[in-house]
Specification:
CATH topology of the largest domain: tt1808, chain A
Helix content: 40-55%
Strand content: 15-25%
Strand order of the largest sheet: 15-16-14-17-18-13-19
Number of strands: 25
CATH class of the largest domain: Alpha Beta
CATH architecture of the largest domain: Alpha-Beta Complex
Shape: globular
Distance between the termini: 40 Å
Length: 809
């Protein structure tokens, strides 16, 4: 029989590990109660503020003021306080002796990492008092204190349990109100069973979600699971202090504390290392892995390097008032570095010439206007000062925001510049841009070496994003395809069998996909055959959203009109009774595309957009017009993404947005489950970008990012495989969901396992633990497999009784 190391032995080994070596944690086995922790904090305060206290110790009444200020209503409030003023977190004390006035005591300095006033202590088996009459007394496993305040709590279970048992233990403590008082300052939880270890940012029990448990990986993205190895890499000094100060971000919109994931931390450190050597480069982090957050941290950390005057965070103009910048400014609300958003070109000039060392958020368009103004007058004093600035440019979605030609112009004007580009889809030699003079054709040529990479394969393995399930549909049969090929050949006796399927598809003119019959078949598939993909069964307000991308604006407009006809019942395609029963007003649809004043079709496009806006205004009681199309687009984004509480209400939600290229890069919407593609395959980087709109983590029912294509299925499948080979480092099989046949066989296998244990369900003996335990495990595997097969179009509920021989009762 296997023997497991007892929990207490794991605890002792951890403490031994953390106290080994120079300038590491100090074990305080004399501290065993919360009151003792408060007293320890009091001693630390007096040690670190001798000059301010001027020999007069804190009275009990004065220390009660401290306790009141350091008892936080939420972990987020604790993090806000911890951010401090210029990185120094203080408490104010009104002295009992009124002649001494009010003093401000230093508690923690974010900059004093492994030095200054910082002290590092470990406590364990702290006794937690009952908060309510019916509660139990609890003992906490291991807590790490910085300057006497609990910052990191570690819960251990022995190897006979999952680390999830430790996670549930923490949730239980939270629900019981145990992490209050002095423990309300916690910033990070660690859970482990010795073999597997995860960490998560502190949050209340209802907000602490298992999908946000994070596995540590090293710089090569290799997992660090053993608890002692994890302790060495993450919990030792100075790394632990950095984790709760430098590697945390406060999201002021969501009122949430965010702990960076390991690959984000490694990227930040890699950029810092390169910048010290005056080297540029790029970070390849797969779409959906939090690039905006990483690039934000990089931008603000670069200001810690004395040789850099300013950091410019460059965003695409479309994004400026939308997701990227709003996220950026939300992260910056409680930061020690000033973040300046530029309102216009004059504002940009003012901020560049200012002596303050800040991060400036601006667009490439404003920067372009600024350079144009001074290129014509290089002798101007402002021009000379601008050209001498030592700038670090940080570019999110670096290929969309800055072209090779534009970067070359900027480098010629700002001669002392470093560049750090972020992309989920680098451009390699295999998919290089067309040659144009000496302009860069690949990401490496444009920005420099890859400083850190984290591909979609690793992100899926780490559960940072979901995998993809791709369905390649055709709206006509092989016989219809052969007939079309024969007609196109102008040879009555032409034998289409001499061509491969992909060769046949290559001969098809695009007009076959512009026929109304094809488009109606696509809409029938979206409206009546995608209920599982779109989560319609979850009910009104709980379903997922989707995007339909087409080959042209005119095609998108036709789709929008056809859907309106379907909704009012004047189309051959009818909304099924089942769909109506699940969500009566499905589908709620909008369209968005760029409108130009100068193109030939601009007047038609404007008129069609007016009509679409009129329907939108009627649906949502809004009042948008062409003059406010920017606000309309933002509103469409919000209703599709459903991030804000307002859009959790069914009346405020969109189900489907029809686009050509808009929203296919940079748009973050965890509730978006499906991308419908009615166009030919795009370039590899465009495919991965578009697919990645769908694979954000959301809820337990969302298993994969769903993609359905409706043109050239054989060709599309080949192009997707090529793109995944390029962007998953050869891990394409780990990125895609299994084929239907494989998923079906796996489900059948779980049925066999259940029947082998209990041939007849009524015979299950709930008192027999020897049978019950393996049955529960087998049933959980069956339940997972059943959830998995339901997202395939081939699955139908009637198959349970026929194919799988399961009787539903």
């Amino acid at each position: 029989m296997q023997k497991f190391v007892p929990e207490l032995e794991l605890e002792n080994n951890l403490i031994k590990q953390l106290t080994s070596g120079q300038s590491q944690w100090t074990y305080r086995d004399d501290l065993r109660t919360e009151e003792a922790l408060w007293q320890n904090l009091r001693e630390k305060l007096e040690q670190n503020n001798t000059a301010i206290l001027n020999g007069i110790s804190l009275t009990n009444q004065e220390f009660q003021q401290v306790k009141n200020q350091l008892t936080f209503s939420s972990f987020y409030k604790a993090a806000e306080w911890l951010a401090g003023e210029n990185g120094m977190a203080r408490v104010s004390v009104q002295r009992e002796d009124a002649t001494l006035g009010t003093i401000h005591l230093k508690v923690i300095n974010r900059q004093d990492i492994a030095g200054g006033i910082s002290s590092y202590e470990i406590v364990n088996q702290i006794s937690s008092e009952k908060r309510q009459h019916l509660d139990n007394h609890r003992r906490f496993d291991v807590t790490l204190l910085i300057n006497g305040l609990p910052m990191i709590h570690i819960e251990l279970k022995n190897r006979s349990h999952s680390y999830m048992s430790a996670f549930h233990q923490i949730k239980k403590y939270l629900a019981e109100g145990k992490f209050t008082g002095i423990y309300s300052s916690l910033q990070m939880f660690v859970v482990t069973n010795g073999t597997d270890t995860r960490y998560i940012a502190s949050a209340q029990d209802t907000k602490l979600k298992p999908q946000f448990l994070t596995r540590w990986v090293d710089e090569e993205n290799q997992g660090v699971d053993d608890y002692l190895a994890f302790a060495s890499e993450v919990l030792s000094i100075p790394q632990a202090h950095k984790m709760v100060t430098q590697y945390t971000v406060l999201d002021s919109d969501k009122k949430a504390l965010i702990l960076l994931r390991p690959y984000q931390i490694h990227a930040i450190e890699a950029v810092k290392k390169a910048s010290k050597k005056q080297q540029s480069g790029y970070v390849w982090h797969t779409t959906g892995s939090g690039k905006t957050l990483t690039s934000y941290k990089v931008a603000r950390n670069l200001l810690q390097i004395a040789s850099i005057d300013k950091t410019l965070f460059i965003v695409d103009r479309v994004d400026l008032d939308q997701q990227t910048t709003s996220s950026f400014l939300s992260y910056a609300d409680n930061d020690v570095v000033a973040i300046d958003e530029t309102e216009n070109v004059q504002d940009l000039l003012k901020k560049l010439l200012s002596p303050e060392r800040t991060v400036i958020v601006t667009t490439i368009q404003k920067l372009n206007f600024l350079m144009r103004r001074f290129e014509e007058n290089l002798a101007h004093k402002h021009s000379q000062k601008l050209r001498q600035l030592k700038l670090a440019f940080v570019v999110d979605e670096c290929h969309r925001a800055v072209s090779p030609a534009k970067k070359q112009e900027i480098d010629q004007f700002f001669v002392h510049s470093l560049w750090y580009g972020f992309t989920g889809t680098p451009i390699f030699v295999e998919n290089a841009r067309q040659a144009l003079g000496d302009l860069a054709r690949t990401t490496k040529q444009q920005y420099g070496e890859c400083l850190h990479e984290y591909t979609v394969k690793e992100a899926i393995y780490d559960k940072a994003v979901l995998g993809f399930q791709v369905e390649y549909k055709s709206t006509f049969s092989e016989e219809e395809l052969d007939d079309a090929i024969i007609k196109l050949s102008n040879q009555a006796d032409f034998n289409p069998d001499c061509l491969s399927l992909s060769e046949k598809e290559a001969r098809l003119p695009k007009t076959v996909y512009e026929e109304e019959a094809h488009m109606l078949e696509v809409l029938h598939s979206i409206i009546n055959q995608s209920g599982i993909k779109l989560g319609l069964r979850k009910g009104s307000g709980q379903s997922y959203s989707a995007i339909l991308t087409t080959s042209s604006i005119s095609q998108a407009q036709r789709y929008f009109d056809l859907i309106q006809q379907i909704k009012v019942g004047v189309s051959p395609v009818k909304i099924s009774e089942k769909v109506k029963r699940l969500i009566p007003d499905f589908p709620k649809v909008a369209i968005t595309y760029s409108i130009s004043e100068n193109e030939e079709a601009s007047s038609d496009n404007q008129e069609k957009m007016k009509q679409a806006m009129a329907r939108y205004n009627e649906e949502f009681d809004t009042n948008f017009s062409l003059e406010t199309i920017g606000a309309y687009n933002r509103d469409v984004n919000n209703r599709l993404a459903r991030k804000q509480e307002k859009y959790q209400n069914r009346f405020e939600q969109l189900d489907l947005v029809i686009v050509v290229d808009r929203l296919l890069t940079g748009f973050d919407a965890p509730s978006l489950s499906t991308l419908f593609i009615d166009r030919k395959p795009m370039q590899p980087h465009e495919l991965i970008q578009a697919f990645s709109r769908t694979n954000r983590l959301f809820d337990d029912s969302k298993k994969y990012g769903q993609v359905v294509t409706f043109q050239v299925p054989e060709t599309f499948e080949q192009k997707v495989k090529e793109a995944l080979v390029l962007y998953s480092n050869g891990g394409e099989n780990e990125v895609l969901a299994p084929e239907w046949s494989e998923a079906k066989d796996a489900f059948i296998q779980t049925i066999h396992q259940l029947r082998a244990l209990v041939p007849n369900p009524v015979d299950l003996d709930l008192q027999n633990e020897a049978i019950l335990k393996p049955f529960i495990k087998a049933f959980q595997q069956f339940d997972r497999a059943y959830s998995n097969i339901q997202v395939y179009s081939e699955f139908d509920e009637s198959m349970l009784g026929t194919t799988f021989l399961i009787v539903q009762e």
